[in-house]
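Protocol step 4 of 6: structure prediction from sequence.
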Amino acid sequence: MSTPKPTPFWLVWNENGRAPCYKHASSGSASREAERLAATNPGQTFVVLEPTLSVLSNVLEYQHFSSADDMVPF
């Protein structure tokens, strides 16, 4: 089974702000948001980011525990 190709997105980031959480569907949308935020926050820099890599691991590790009933007390 192949993994579907991810949809491109852009984020607006400010080093002194919260972590970005809104995925813009176009660079233009992200640029307009960066301009809006910069206008309302003088002196702060807003950066438009585009992901270049995504990594996914599907490895599962199991640990089995024995219950107290399984243990012999002597």
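Step 5 (inspection) to follow. The mean pLDDT is 89.
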